[in-house]
Specification:
Layout: H1 3-20, E1 27-31, H2 37-45, E2 50-53, H3 56-65, E3 73-76, H4 85-91, E4 94-98, H5 101-110, E5 118-123, H6 140-147, E6 153-159, H7 168-188, E7 194-196, H8 203-208, E8 213-216, H9 218-221
Parallel strand pairs: 1-2, 1-8, 2-3, 3-4, 4-5, 5-6, 6-7
The structure holds pyridoxal-5'-phosphate.
Residues 31, 33, 54, 77, 161, 199-201, 215-219 line the site of pyridoxal-5'-phosphate.
Length: 225
């Protein structure tokens, strides 16, 4: 199926789930990692503006390719090593995977002066997987407090990649925990408006639990090799 058809199908699903659960303003992030610029171009022509990428070098090439499209919004959603922060600070509009103050401080120092502050989501290790990135829930407020002091970063909310579960009830266990953390963050800080959770296989459960941004790759662009 074509990318345009897939996108319109996902928009319909988001609309229908949002109505059913009285959610509004759920944004769609198109996850284009490993996909060629032609695929991104097709999504742009279908009206998509926000794209998520996981690998810094691959992403920078794509962002440069689309440098004549300033309306595009690029989100870094992969694990970030400290030797790659400079490129992320220079090229991206958002980073969704901040889980260490050191990374945040480097991004703050390296953000070019002519750019708006870099939008930041704190990644939470919500399924408590030893191997996964993200902070523990009880580390959220101290890290948020420190990030909120950095002038070239703008804290916008939280992101999580829960352990994959096939049953919606199981998927919702982690998403409900994220919803509580997000509510807590909103009471402590201003301008917290983004809860990034939900992928191709758990989008519905995520929106039910208050996601404001779903990150969809496979259902838009097809399977990755
Ligand atoms: C790859 C990826 C996605 C998209 O996953 P799909 O299952 O292809 O929709 C979403 N979020 C992150 C962080 C990813 O790495």
């Amino acid at each position: 199926m074509s990318i345009a058809v897939n996108l319109s199908h996902i928009h319909q699903q988001i609309q229908q789930i949002s109505e059913q659960y009285q959610r509004d303003n759920v944004r769609l992030l198109a996850v284009s990692k490993t996909k060629p610029v032609e695929a991104i171009q097709a999504a742009i022509e279908a009206g998509q503006r926000a794209f998520g990428e996981n690998y810094v070098q691959e992403a920078v090439e794509k962002i440069e390719f689309f440098a004549n499209r300033p309306e595009l919004e690029w989100h870094f959603i992969g694990p970030l090593q400290s030797n790659k922060t400079k490129l992320v600070a220079a090229y991206f509009d958002w980073i969704q995977t901040v889980d260490r103050l050191k990374i945040a401080e480097r991004l703050n120092e390296q953000r070019p002066a002519d750019k708006a502050p870099l939008n930041v989501l704190i990644q939470i290790n919500i399924s408590d997987e030893a191997s996964k990135s993200g902070i523990e829930p009880d580390e959220m407020l101290p890290l948020a407090q420190a990030i909120s002091q950095l002038p070239n970063l703008k804290l916008r909310g939280l992101m999580a990649i829960p352990k994959p579960e096939s049953e919606p009830e199981q998927q919702k266990v982690a998403f409900r925990k994220m919803q509580l953390l997000f509510n807590c963050l909103q009471t402590e800080f201003d301008d917290i408006d983004t809860l990034s959770m939900g992928m191709s296989d758990d989008m519905q459960a995520a929106i039910e639990c208050g996601s404001t941004m779903v990150r969809i790759g496979t259902a838009i662009f097809g399977a990755r090799r």
